[in-house]
Amino acid sequence: MRASTTRPSAPRTAVFFHAHPDDEALLTAGTMAMLAAEGHRVILVVATSGERGQADLAPGEALGEARMAELYKSAAALGCARVVNLGYGDSGLAPGGGIAEDRPPNAFIDADGEEAARRLAAVLTEEKADLLTTYDPAGGYGHPDHVQVHRVGGRAAELAGTPIVLEATVNRDPLLRGLKLARRFYPQLDVRAFERAYSSGEEITHRVNVRRFARQKRASMAAHATQATGADTRTLGVMLKVPGPLYRLVFGTEWYVRRDVPAGARLRHPFETPPKA
């Protein structure tokens, strides 16, 4: 059952919390652009500068600076009012997944969860945030920093009293169907790695149509040049090669889970809630 209204009558503030620069482009860029266009205040917070990501630049301070510059460019394309970096170290990813052993001493995954939550809560309180996005419990595909975003974000919302928490995710069901089809042509593709990634369709509460903001979403992706070049199989690079009409179809929906509404609710706007029984 749909709520009677999908848009708040007055501007609100939404804080989008991500692990690294470019994560916002992949999961929430369309929603961010939509809310900004509607007159809401959109804040982008990252836990790290992504200095251990794959790029033509060697991992380290220079890469972190480059990726933060890209983040500001992405934020401008989406209409963000503010960008905040919590300043933790990028934890990196071990070969094959999992926690890297050579992570920096200030790695986000090793941060005290309560202290990190207080730092994010300070931003939420200062901004009088009405909404916070985090990630699903799996951290999407399981990156340790993404899992930490889920933990820290949920606790920060509790500390700040932020009323709406949405877990940014992907509908796993069509993703698995597509991967199983692709395996016919690429037998080496490991579909099992995605069987517990992201969220099932029955868990998802919000399906946000962002096709009208495909141009801004694509600009957000393109801003992260260090993450779109250097290899033929880079995720962003592949996405940016998708033709416009197909791009709007494939990337025109963004998914969220809100835990305090019934699972599977068919909500279409971040501020929408089910009608009271």
Structure in words:
- Keywords: Zinc.
- This is GlcNAc-PI de-N-acetylase.
- It comes from Planomonospora parontospora.
- One of its GO terms (molecular function) is hydrolase activity, acting on carbon-nitrogen (but not peptide) bonds, in linear amides.
- It holds the Pfam family PIG-L.
- With 277 residues, this protein is α/β, with parallel strands linked by helices.
- It has a single domain (13-257), classed as LmbE-like (Rossmann fold, 3-Layer(aba) Sandwich), CATH 3.40.50.10320.
- It is 35% helix and 15% strand.
- The chain has 9 helices and 7 strands; from the N terminus they run E-H-H-E-H-E-H-E-H-E-H-E-H-H-H-E.
- Strands 3-2-1-4-5-7-6 form a 7-stranded mixed sheet, sandwiched between helices.
- Strand 4, helix 5 and strand 5 form a beta-alpha-beta unit.
- Helix 3 (61-78) packs antiparallel against helix 7 (214-223).
- The chain starts with 12 loop residues before the first strand and ends in a 20-residue tail after the last strand.
- The model is unreliable at 1-6 (pLDDT under 50).
Query: Could you please say which CATH topology applies here?
Result: Rossmann fold
Count of runs of 4 or more consecutive helical residues: 9
Q: What ranges have pLDDT less than 50 throughout 5 or more consecutive residues?
A: 1-6
SSE order, as H and E? EHHEHEHEHEHEHHHE
User: What spatial order of strands do you see in the largest sheet?
Assistant: 3-2-1-4-5-7-6
The domain count comes to: 1
Largest sheet: 7 strands, mixed
**Rg from Cα:** 18 Å
What is the residue-mean pLDDT, rounded to a whole number? Answer: 90
Structural class computed from helices and strand pairing:
alpha/beta
Strand content: 5-15%
The count of DSSP E runs of length 2 or more, i.e. the number of strands, is: 7
> Shape, please?
globular
Keywords: Zinc
GO biological process, one term: glycoside metabolic process
Organism: Planomonospora parontospora
Protein name: GlcNAc-PI de-N-acetylase
